[in-house]
Structure formats: C-alpha cells, structure tokens
Amino acid sequence: MLKTVFFGTPELAVPSLERAAAVSRLLAVVTQPDRPRGRGRKPEPPPVKRWAETRGIPVVQPERLNDGIFECWLREQKPDLCLMAAYGRLLKQPVLDIPPLGWLNVHPSLLPRWRGPSPIQTAILEGDTITGVTIMRVALEMDAGDIVLQDTVPIGPDETAGELTNRLAILGAELLEQAVRMAEEGPLPAVPQDPEKVTYCRLFEKKDGRIRWSDPAWRIHNLVRASNPWPMAFCLFRGEWFRILKTSVEPVPAGSDPGVITSVEKDRLLVATGEGTLAIRRAQLPGRKPLDMTAFLLGARIRPGERFLEAPEPMENGGDAQP
To answer: H or E segment at 3?
Structure first.
C-alpha cells in the first residue's frame, strides 16, 4: 500500500478520508484548527478530526503551513502521496514538492468550471443542470492542476446544496479510491485544463442568502436551493427575519410589485418577483421550527397584498444567530 497523508476539514471530506484509510497506509490527517461555532462560540473540532480520532489516526492542526515547521513534519512522515478534499488552505511549492508521487485533490465541480471555494453553491445559483467531481493534481495556482479523473452528475431542478453536497461527497470518495489504486500501478493520467473554459467562484457567505425580490423568480428559487442548509435564504416579513427553505417557480406573470403576496393557498404563498411568480412552500420564523406552508399558515394569518422586504446584510459572525 502507498503511504499517504490526508488533508481535509468539513463533512464533505469525510467519505474521501474513509476511502483513503481503506486503500492506503494512512500516516496522519491534517485539518484546520478547531473554530468557535454556534451561539456559545465554543471551539468545535472539524468533522475530519472527529472521524480520525475515533479510529486512532494521528491528527495535526497547524496554524501556519509555510514557516518551515510544518514542512519539516511532513518530510519526516515520508508519504508517497498526499490526498486532499476541501482542506480550505493554500500550500506553497516546498510543501507540494515533498511526496514523490505528488498530490491528488477532490474538487466538487467539472473543472475548469468553478475553480474556487464554493463550487456547489455557485453551480446551483447559476442554474447549472450538470456538475460532477474532478480528481486533479495540486498545483501552486488554486484548482489549476491537471485533471486525473472526472465524472458527471445531473443537478435536480429542486435539489439543494446540502443534497448535492452529499451526492458529490460519495462520488468524490469513489473517484479518489480509484485514483489511489491507479497510482499504485503506474503513472497517472494528466490532462491540462482548457484555459478558455475557466470560470471562478468566490466564497459563499452568510450575506449571500439575502433575497432580492426584484430578481427573477428562477434566480430567487436557485438562491433558496443554494442557501440550504446554510445560511438559508432570508428576507423581512412584518418586521421579522423570515427564512425561506423551499420554493418553486410558477408559470404565471408577477401581477404585482416585487415581494407582494398575490395569493394565499393551502400549501403555498404566491409572491410577485421582478420577473414571474415564486411559490413559497417551506419557511421558518426566528426561534421557531421549519414548517411546510400548510402547517405554517395554520398559525399565521397571512393575507394577499402583504409584502416581503429585503433584509439588511447580516453580520458575518459565523454562527446561526439572526443578525
């Protein structure tokens, strides 16, 4: 078996870590430091760390990667190959040069489309109908390495970022296992990315869940999907923060100003947008449970003509509390 060190942080990386441990001699796991989370701001370990520690695999959480200390540590491990999935930090060339067989990274997009930190949310937000996973060589430029393996999956018209993440995590783990087995047998394929097809995405942030009712209905629908399970799409209603968890686009004209409720039905609210009508099917008020609209309307007397408003941008405090 090849000797490997695995680099990863969130839940998305855990299936790849599990496969890496099964098909290689896993020397250690490198992940980001524990970070404060939630209302109490208590430091919590990354999912990758929790998985590794329960199985007795050494875990390293360096604050600095390029001060020479971490480089020396990695050299001492003498890995044949380093594996990466959603680690979230950039490495410099001296570190990349350590394993003789190089590095393999699991990237949840069809590179060169959506290089960057939030390819899943961006693919949904932009209305892509197909995405996939790329196993790529790690290069100094972000997500620019040669393609080793790639596979595609369709994106469902109502699929959320959370649902798609789960599917891509499983596919990525399968492809990573295949790539590690191939590396044992000989040189891996390496297909350069087409520079004419490169697109980039930025980090998806809490403020990106803010609904702008002047946008077309399809755009808001995609935003709701991309923001689920975090940060959840939000707006203001009756002076309170209002989270929208599930929607559909209805084939009827807006019929009113953006944000105005045009119809209250048994299982949905119809809302005018900048172009077309959006149906709200699941929502949540502050401090309340998420509810399908049938249950939501039992406790809320909502009338046509009432209006949803744009919310101010939330504070980027990293927690789930309302701004």
So the answer is: strand 3-8
